[in-house]
Structures are given as C-alpha cells and as structure tokens.
Amino acid sequence: MKRETLKNWQSVRKEVLNRIHSRQWKPGELIPNEADLAQEFGCARSTVNRALQNLADDGLLDRRRKAGTRVAMHPVRKATMSIPVIRNEIIARGSAYGYDLISSERSTPPPHVAALMGLAPRAGVIHIVCVHSADDTPYVIEDRWISSDWVSPDDMVNFANLSPNEWLVTHVPFTAGDIAFSAISAGAFEAALLGCELGAASFVIDRTTRNNERTITTVRLIFAPGYRIDTEI
Amino acid sequence: MKRETLKNWQSVRKEVLNRIHSRQWKPGELIPNEADLAQEFGCARSTVNRALQNLADDGLLDRRRKAGTRVAMHPVRKATMSIPVIRNEIIARGSAYGYDLISSERSTPPPHVAALMGLAPRAGVIHIVCVHSADDTPYVIEDRWISSDWVSPDDMVNFANLSPNEWLVTHVPFTAGDIAFSAISAGAFEAALLGCELGAASFVIDRTTRNNERTITTVRLIFAPGYRIDTEI
Q1: pLDDT value of position B129
Q2: pLDDT tens figures, B173-191
Q3: Which end of chain B is more exposed for a tag (fewer CB within 10 A), N or C?
Q4: The total number of structural domains that make up chain B
C-alpha cells in the first residue's frame, strides 16, 4: 500500500499532534528521530524539524540535543494575546474614542520607577497621566513614565492631543519588553479618573519596553471595572 | 564589494526588523517583493517568505495577496503566556503544594454553563470546587464544570486526592480553547475559600476547552489577591 506523503510542515504537525492526542505517543515517551519520521512521512527532514520545533514551542514536545524528542509530561500550553494600540481597541469595539490628558511633567524618577527602568536617581523622565474613553465613558487610565532621552520639548506639546501610547508606537520603536497582568482595588486616584466606586476591582497591565538594552518607557494601564481580555489557546 | 549573504530565515528576519526599527522602511510603506529581497540577501525566496511570514504573524508586517507587503501602520504586538498545571506553577515558585476538594457533584448545567459549553439543559455535568494552596495559604479556587461524557464514576473518586486541573491534563487531551482574563471583587464565596477580605480584587482566568468540536470543560480560576502573571513581548 502506498502511503500518502505529507507535503508541508503543517500537515506533519497535524499528524504528530494526532498521535499525541490519541495517546499513540504517550506523555514522557521518546518519539522516533527526525530521519525516521521524514522517511515515514515521505518528506524532507527539515520539514519534520520545523513541525517538531513548532510543537516544542507550543509546549507539547520536549526537545533535548542528543537525548531526542519526548512527548511533554506536563504540557505547558501557551496563549497568545494581541496588544493593540488603545485607540484601535476602542474603535474595534464599535465605540467612539476619546482622550483626556490629565497631567504631563518632566521630573526625576521616584525610586520604584528608577528601579523598573534601570535609571539613575537623577535621570530625566517624563510622567504622563491620561484617560482613554469609549463613548464618553472612561475605559482605561494610562499612567506612564518615559525616559527623557526619547522625548524632545516639541514632542511634549503633542501629548495634549495624542496619547503617549499612540505617539510611542509611531515615534519610538521597541525591540522587547516585559508585561504583567494583575488586579487591584481602585483607590481614590483610580475611582476619580475612572468614575467607579472606591475599592472596585480593576484589571491592570504593567508594561516596560526597551529599544535594545535601553529602557524607553514603563506604563501602568488601569482598566475600568468589568474589563476582560479574550484570547485563544 | 561582495555583500554578505544571509543564510537562514532568522537572519533575514533580523535584517528586515532592523530596517523597520531604523525607519529605513516606514510604517505603511510597501517593501520590495520576495524575489528582489532574495536576490539582495543572496538566499532562497522561500527563506525570505518564511521570515516575512513570521514578522506578519508578529503583527509587524501586513501581507496582502497581490497587493504586496507593507510595514504595519499600527503594529499589534503579541504576548505569549504559558499556562502551566497549577501544581507545577506553585512548585516552580518554591512553595509546598496543597489541594483541598470542597465539593464534587453530578448535576445538570445551570443556563450560563450550558451556554458556555454548548450543552443541552438536561445534559450531564460534573461540578467540582477545590482550592490549591502554596505553603498552606490559599492560592487559587478552581471552580470547574466537566461534561460527564469524559468522566466515569471511578474517575470521580480520584478528585479527592487529585485536582481536576491535573487529572484532565493527563486523561483528556484538548485541541483548542478560549481563555479570558479579568478582575472581580471577592464575594462571600471567594472570601471564605481564599481567606481574604470581602471585596478584595482577585485576578480571574476563565477557560473553556474542546476536543475537536466537543466541549470538555469550563473553569473559572479565582486567584488570591496580589496574584500577578509575568510574561514577555
């Protein structure tokens, strides 16, 4: 019987996934090597390699140089989440976008901000607080610090009409960053700007981004109570 | 002068990323086609294709069949987050893992659960509530519904000692799912099980997973106040 050959890495990935899900290959078990799989599937070894690497990236296989590839004992599934520009997120919900600058000033960083950004205590920073709204209802507070290396006096003027979130995307590209998700109880500051009750549960995103090794900015986004991020695994 | 050739898709990706970050290729601008880039880089067209596709997957390029490839106007960055088994997450923090089953029963689904799982009102479900703890401190409530198709009476016995989170990973593989992140104020139920104050802000993960088209389970994980997920972009 002539076996059907698998033409591309996606179909190899699918076949390998089927074998894991059907328990033909069980958790912890060593799977055949790439050369043998390539022969079985009638495809190039590089095609098998790409499929296995993709499944390893997804946490379903454990690959060890020399020790071979095993089905993961404790699969760590991954969820990939989009991080859109806030204006675009609000427009995509079908709402009218609004922006209010609350404050913007040049200063030196408070200790926790200096630590987050890896700055000297006397370094220059810009501190901006603004509120993005959807249909005239507060949506999220953007509480942001930017290293002043990246912002000229002319740029400061812009923040009256353009959020730093949006300005940074088009003016200062970042190469990497850290992001964290948590929940906080709204204090007086949050309750006043979001128009919510004191103590209400708010979803929070903390994000620090770098251009190569230099920190550009750190931001805390505090969403109005009820906010929810949906994604897929 | 002989140009250095780019041997693999990763080095092509890096060069393209440099051109985007340095603004040699600006947001919205059409970039050269794959054949021209392959010639310039001295590599196969398929190598260029893989690099550009990867950058498009990351939201940095917009690819349109026939219309060519442009630098994204509004890059949508993505964050990839690991979803470990709760026991492993707690152990990885260096804490001792504990598990308490609060309740487990067979019933029919309440309307919101039937809707989430796509079940008939009379379908059989298992409802399990348990608490995972770290160093004897409540860490997260697992409030879970499982379609009874996947659970035998023998399996029910297991939940006294093994969380459904862990049991499902090793017994019922899933192929896809939805996941959402939000924040809630702890009510009486959450405050009692987490040992926190009424109204404290809790981080919440809602997850519904399927095996092909059939829903296996839907779970709400309610974390003790102060919980935070860290990841990278």
Answers
A1: 97
A2: 777 889 999 999 999 999 9
A3: N
A4: 2
Same domain, B101 and B205: yes
- How far is the alpha carbon of B218 from chain A, nearest alpha carbon, in Å? 13
* Cα nearest neighbour of A176 on chain B: B233
Give the number of other Cβ atoms within 10 Å of residue A12's Cβ.
24
What is the rounded distance in angstroms from the CA atom of residue A132 to the CA atom of residue A123?
A: 28
Q: B158: which strand partners?
A: none
Instruction: Examine the domain organization and report whether A20 and A104 are in the same domain.
Output: no
Q: Residues A152-165: pLDDT tens digits?
A: 887 777 888 889 99
Averaged pLDDT, A59-65? 83
Whether ipTM tops 0.90, in short, is no
Distance from the B183 Cα atom to the nearest Cα atom in chain A, whole angstroms: 5
Is residue B164 within 8 Å of residue B130, measured between CB atoms? yes
**Are the C-beta atoms of B38 and B51 separated by less than 8 Å?**
no
Q: Which residues of B123-132 are buried (b: 16+ CB within 10 A; e: fewer)?
A: eebbbbbbbb
When CB atoms are compared, the residue of B80, B182, B202 closest to A228 is B182
Q: Which of A26, A46, A71 is the last residue of a domain?
A: A71
